């Protein structure tokens, strides 16, 4: 439901990037948040999967767990994530839940995973609350049996349509501490046009009811850049969101790919137009300023938190140093120096797990020492800030000893700034975060053309 730009990007046909660039939709693959570094290998997949728990890299940081539920009650026209319409067959959903439980147990049976200190759990999708209370109960209790997650931050993405008061109350009793929903826009005409469920009235009503449950935090997502919208339109959405006084807001730029219904509709209807990049930047910068002026701080490139409401999951997932354990079809993770993505089809995922195999479809080679430093920059800027102290403590060298030319260049372009603690993204840099991060992938993209580099980053694949 919430457009978490983390572990669930769907299949990306290679031609799609070429189609997007150069057309009236002036988007590029750097608009997609970079999550994986190093990128996936095209060969030796089984070999790397076999070695994933060997030769542990010692890191003393907490680890987030992500769980992907790929079902939705209805499909929004712009959605780029790995999700499908909730199947009519209850058996298929139950088979998915059974596979998820088996996958969790499979990982937890390895000493390397058992020793991880879990700091946060995030159940996302799709729409996790399409599952029954019983199914959610079985997933959460399996997690509790396999990992020490008592007193841990635990978030779930909800759709007001299937997350009523009594379901949420039970989830709270099970240990859920945060709820999040993808509102996308409060404009009812746009919601109908893009097939986003629920009226804005129903959403407001839902927020009021959820507030009475006293979760530690409630969060919502908005998207800017829908067809025929402008800064005034988006500021109206942002003002409504800020007035709700939630602990956390996520603001996403519409990223349109060739397989989405919205893309196809725009191709057919030449009159339907998207905002230009200049208009998009104006929407972003004015809303960014408005949010910062209303007691929110930047938590990561697309996330804002109120004081005391920082979301640990985002902190951990974007720290650039530790592991991210990820369960469910198509989800992305990072374990012991390997980036991986699970099987992208639900049937493929279920059948791998049934065979007691890790359901990994794509995996990187083991990270090198040079790439660990690059990852700290690439993922660190996804968070919006690279700490000088953490970098030095980990690598015994300064950021500028390793990356002075990129740092100086990006400061001169006003993409990043430097202060005594580290390097942060300016508002221009926040908007172009993918571009900033891509600059630190030197060891992989030596002698590779800019176009090929863009394609590879978009596909999460090595250039060779
Ligand atoms: S609710 Fe809409 S935006 Fe959210 S995952 Fe489902 S289809 Fe995508």
UniProtKB/TrEMBL annotation:
What Gene3D superfamilies does the annotation carry? Answer: Aldolase class I (3.20.20.70)
MF (Gene Ontology): 4 iron, 4 sulfur cluster binding; coproporphyrinogen oxidase activity; metal ion binding
Q: Where in the cell is it found?
A: Cytoplasm
Concerning its family, UniProt says: Belongs to the anaerobic coproporphyrinogen-III oxidase family. HemW subfamily.
Q: Which gene encodes it?
A: hemW
Q: Which InterPro entries match?
A: Aldolase_TIM (IPR013785), Coproporphyrinogen-III_oxidase (IPR034505), Elp3/MiaA/NifB-like_rSAM (IPR006638), HemW-like (IPR004559), rSAM (IPR007197), rSAM_sf (IPR058240)
GO BP terms: porphyrin-containing compound biosynthetic process
User: What range(s) does the Radical SAM core domain occupy?
Assistant: 57-295
What SMART domains does the record tag this protein with?
Elp3
- Gene Ontology CC terms: cytoplasm
Q: What is its main location?
A: cytoplasm
Q: What does this protein do?
A: Probably acts as a heme chaperone, transferring heme to an unknown acceptor. Binds one molecule of heme per monomer, possibly covalently. Binds 1 [4Fe-4S] cluster. The cluster is coordinated with 3 cysteines and an exchangeable S-adenosyl-L-methionine.
The alphabetized UniProt keywords are: 4Fe-4S, Chaperone, Cytoplasm, Heme, Iron, Iron-sulfur, Metal-binding, S-adenosyl-L-methionine
NCBIfam families listed in its UniProt record: hemN_rel
Any idea what this protein is called? Heme chaperone HemW
SUPFAM superfamilies according to UniProt: Radical SAM enzymes
């Amino acid at each position: 439901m919430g457009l978490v730009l983390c572990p669930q990007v769907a299949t990306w046909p290679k031609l799609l990037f070429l189609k997007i660039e150069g057309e009236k939709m002036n988007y590029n693959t750097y608009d997609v948040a970079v999550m994986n570094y190093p990128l996936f290998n095209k060969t030796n997949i089984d070999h790397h999967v076999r070695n994933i728990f060997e030769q542990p890299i010692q890191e003393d940081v907490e680890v987030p767990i992500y769980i992907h539920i790929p079902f939705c009650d209805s499909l929004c026209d712009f959605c780029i994530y790995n999700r499908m319409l909730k199947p009519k067959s209850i058996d298929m959903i139950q088979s998915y839940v059974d596979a998820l439980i088996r996958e969790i147990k499979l990982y937890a049976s390895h000493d390397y995973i058992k020793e991880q200190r879990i700091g946060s759990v995030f159940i996302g999708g799709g729409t996790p609350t399409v599952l029954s209370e019983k199914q959610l109960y079985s997933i959460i209790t399996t997690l509790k049996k396999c990992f020490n997650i008592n007193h841990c931050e635990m978030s779930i993405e909800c759709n007001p349509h299937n997350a009523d008061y009594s379901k949420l109350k039970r989830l709270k009793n099970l240990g859920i501490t945060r709820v999040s929903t993808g509102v996308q826009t409060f404009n009812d005409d746009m919601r109908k046009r893009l097939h986003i469920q629920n009226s804005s009235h129903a959403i407001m009503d839902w927020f009021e009811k959820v507030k009475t449950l006293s979760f530690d935090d409630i969060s919502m997502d908005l998207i800017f850049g829908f067809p025929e919208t402008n800064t005034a339109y988006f500021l109206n959405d942002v003002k409504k969101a800020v007035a709700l006084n939630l602990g956390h807001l996520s603001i996403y730029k519409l990223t349109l790919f060739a397989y989405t219904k919205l893309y196809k509709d725009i191709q057919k209807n030449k009159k339907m137009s998207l905002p230009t990049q200049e208009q998009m930047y104006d929407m972003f910068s004015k809303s960014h300023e408005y949010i910062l002026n209303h007691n929110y701080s930047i938590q990561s490139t697309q996330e804002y938190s109120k004081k005391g409401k920082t979301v640990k999951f985002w902190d951990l997932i974007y720290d650039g140093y530790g592991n991210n354990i990820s369960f469910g079809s198509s989800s992305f993770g990072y374990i012991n120096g390997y980036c991986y993505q699970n099987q992208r089809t639900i049937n493929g995922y279920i059948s791998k797990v049934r065979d007691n195999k890790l359901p990994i479809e794509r995996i990187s080679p083991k990270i090198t020492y040079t790439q660990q430093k690059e990852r700290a920059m690439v993922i660190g800027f996804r968070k919006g800030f690279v700490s000088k102290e953490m970098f030095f403590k980990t690598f015994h060298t300064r950021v500028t000893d390793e990356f002075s030319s990129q740092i100086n260049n990006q400061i001169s372009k006003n993409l990043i700034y430097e202060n005594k603690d580290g390097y942060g993204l300016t508002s221009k840099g926040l908007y172009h975060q993918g571009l900033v991060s891509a600059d630190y992938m030197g060891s992989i993209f030596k002698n590779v053309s800019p176009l090929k580099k863009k394609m590879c980053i978009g596909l999460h694949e090595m250039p060779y």
